[in-house]
């Protein structure tokens, strides 16, 4: 058999997370990912890990992601957590985000492209920011340069775990009872037998769940305590990818990057009114001219969900056509896989705005053949958040 | 049973050669989600890409191990690709063929040689 889609593995000094030994003990297959040696799957396998997370609870090591604390300029008073300054880098409302709440955001560039997507939490006297592993050095440099007077500190002595799935609340509440009262996108600091835990009720699977920042020396003990519960299985990056794709969530570097604007990426929902045209804090973020215009008038192309009509998955890079023969490609798939919960292949990609209505039939070229695919609503599997 | 370096197995059965992929290959591929089979009656030449097999991870080809003609394909795999993970060397055969150059079988490994090949 000849492998077609597996890329070359680059050798080099890879970072390890505080759970590296545990992953090996659990029988994980480790792969290089964003400069880290990470578990792509455990002995259960991608499909069963995915289904287990949707049925019960899954534990993910996301310690490769960047954790950053931002504090406001000291000369503007003790109450400044940097929210005002932060709005110069993102099109989101950070001022006015209540203490104990988190918001999805993205850094944009001067051309209106996406530099990274991230989570920002208001933790009172500071902001807690979580960014993608592959972008973190660049993001930290961006924040240091773009937040004059603010302190920007990367947290390098804490691991980050995600516990996701319908039983996540019951599982985590055995260790930290107060997490049961949190709502989707709440954040808090909780004392525990594993030291202070920085917990948000969020994740990237479309399931209810938590992300838990824990001091690195306690990370393995916490992970073992969670895995000791019957409901919990460790889940690798393979299932993390199919879970997020079923949830209609973008993967930075695949579905969004500097060549895509927030409106093209259908992330309009993440830009609050107050930063839009005629809002109280309109514009004043990188690329505002283009992004505000596209919010008003739309973009020429749009990220959409795609459901192949046959059983063949359409992987990233699959060219999309308007007809079953002839013509130039009208777009391309940016993520594509088989959806274990959906029970069918699914994809997302960019198509011209006039071909973006759900139900529109397009053709993806797979191994030289044009296969029918329909534009579809996302998420492919309904989200299960505790709002 | 004979084995190829492409992790296919070949079994003689009623004058035909039955072809599938090994347990080792199915484990390496991970959960199989899609299979495209050749046409019955199709003439094939050794090393032609005759099947497509997609797992949760990647797409791969199955190469024709011998010259000959496809006489039967296992259509049950198209409906239930997961059989390849459950019973790769039994129920989940891919196709049966009549070889035109049966001597090509001699190029392939026996079970002991394949076991040492996969280490």
In terms of quaternary structure, what is this? heterodimer
- How many individual helices of chain B? 4
Measured by residues with Cβ under 8 Å of the partner chain's Cβ, the largest interface is:
A-B, 22 and 26 residues
CATH top level of the largest domain in chain A is Alpha Beta
Q: Which radius of gyration of chain A do the C-alpha atoms yield? A: 21 Å
How are the strands of the biggest sheet of chain A laid out side by side? 10-11-12-9-3-13
Family (chain A): Belongs to the GcvT family.
Domain Aminomethyltransferase C-terminal (chain A): 301-381
Binding site for substrate (chain A): 211
Keywords (chain A): Aminotransferase, Transferase
What topology does this entry show?
The complex is a heterodimer of chains A (387) and B (119).
Chain A: H1 20-25, E1 29-33, E2 36-41, H2 46-55, E3 57-61, E4 66-71, H3 83-86, E5 102-108, E6 114-122, E7 127-131, H4 136-146, E8 151-154, E9 158-164, H5 168-173, E10 187-190, E11 197-200, E12 209-215, H6 216-227, E13 232-234, H7 237-246, H8 288-297, E14 301-308, E15 319-321, E16 331-339, E17 344-352, E18 361-366, E19 369-376
Parallel strand pairs in A: 3-13
Antiparallel strand pairs in A: 1-2, 3-9, 4-7, 4-8, 5-6, 6-7, 9-12, 10-11, 11-12, 14-17, 14-19, 15-16, 15-18, 16-17, 18-19
Helix pairs in contact in A: 2-7
Chain B: E1 2-3, E2 8-13, E3 16-21, H1 23-29, E4 32-36, E5 43-44, E6 49-55, E7 59-63, E8 68-73, H2 76-79, H3 83-86, E9 95-99, H4 111-118
Antiparallel strand pairs in B: 1-2, 2-3, 3-9, 4-6, 5-8, 6-7, 8-9
